[in-house]
Amino acid sequence: VIFIKTVAEFMHTKAHIKMNTKKLYQSDGYAVKEMLKVTSMLYNAMKTNSSSQSETDNEDDSSHLSFDISSKINDLKEARRLASEITTKGATLYDLLGKEVDLREQRSIVIAKSLEINEVEGGITGSIKGVENEIKKYLMQLDNVASDEANLEAKIEKKKNELERNNKRLQTLQSVRPAYMDEYEKLEEDLQKLYEVYMEKFRNLTYLEAQQEEYNRAEQDKFEETEEKLKQMADRLKSEEHNRQKIMPDDIDLSRNSDDDLDESDDEDEVQQPTRQRPDAAAGERKQRVMGSMLADASDDDSEIDLDDDDEDDDDDDDDDDDDNDNVNEDDEIDDNDF
């Protein structure tokens, strides 16, 4: 309270700023307004000071202009922090001022109370005993720390010994060759060989599968090509058959004419040679002529060739018949002579 009164009197006498002490006691928004009177005056003074410094700097070097916005931002952050701190401090001050009435009464009672030597001595001895108890407790903790340190050192030494023993055991195990190591190495070599064989067979199998696929593809292409060729041949044969069916009546007439000519020649041969006939040859000729003439697939050229062949066969047969007739006549003459 005295502090607030002295500050208010100082600001009133020196800066001519009137402040309400009751609002300051409350430590709320009104107290902040009262304090802003002083802070605004101080801020304006600082601002005028900075402006005067900037003017002097401009006079010294007018070409150099600097405006550091980061410093302004920092100043703004600092002002906000101070405002929040002022608010918290004002709230605590308000609470303490609220307790000042009771505290003042207790303080006045204590000051007015006369102190007795026995009570003072008892309080001092009690505090001394408390301090001694704390000292004993700290000493016990120190003793415990020493014992704990000894225990830890013993454990560390034990662990070191175990570590050395394990290291020695490890060295001995590393130096000694196991009994199954030879068999292990042999099996490892066999496994490596089997793996190489497996890889070789796998590569061969992969290659053969690729070759088989290529071969199957080629065979499929060939099959498709042959099917296409057969289809083309079938179409060509169908077209030829159709053409042959168109020209078939002419072939039938030609075959009939050839048969009539052959029949006439046979009749003439029978008239000339009534004594002896060769039915087998004649039948063969007829069969050949019939077979040659009944072929529906033969073209005009083939029919002409068959007719020529038939004529040649007829000439040969006529020669044979003449020879037979001569032989028969000779036999008849021999018989007459015998008689």
UniProtKB/TrEMBL annotation:
<dbReference type="Pfam" id="PF10234">
    <property type="entry name" value="Cluap1"/>
</dbReference>
<feature type="region of interest" description="Disordered">
    <location>
        <begin position="232"/>
        <end position="339"/>
    </location>
</feature>
<keyword id="KW-0969">Cilium</keyword>
<feature type="compositionally biased region" description="Basic and acidic residues">
    <location>
        <begin position="277"/>
        <end position="288"/>
    </location>
</feature>
<dbReference type="GO" id="GO:0005815">
    <property type="term" value="C:microtubule organizing center"/>
</dbReference>
<feature type="compositionally biased region" description="Basic and acidic residues">
    <location>
        <begin position="232"/>
        <end position="259"/>
    </location>
</feature>
<feature type="compositionally biased region" description="Acidic residues">
    <location>
        <begin position="298"/>
        <end position="339"/>
    </location>
</feature>
<dbReference type="GO" id="GO:0060271">
    <property type="term" value="P:cilium assembly"/>
</dbReference>
<keyword id="KW-0970">Cilium biogenesis/degradation</keyword>
<dbReference type="GO" id="GO:0005929">
    <property type="term" value="C:cilium"/>
</dbReference>
<protein>
    <submittedName>
        <fullName>Clusterin-associated protein 1</fullName>
    </submittedName>
</protein>
<comment type="similarity">
    <text>Belongs to the CLUAP1 family.</text>
</comment>
<dbReference type="InterPro" id="IPR019366">
    <property type="entry name" value="Clusterin-associated_protein-1"/>
</dbReference>
<keyword id="KW-0175">Coiled coil</keyword>
<feature type="compositionally biased region" description="Acidic residues">
    <location>
        <begin position="260"/>
        <end position="271"/>
    </location>
</feature>
<dbReference type="GO" id="GO:0030992">
    <property type="term" value="C:intraciliary transport particle B"/>
</dbReference>
<keyword id="KW-0966">Cell projection</keyword>
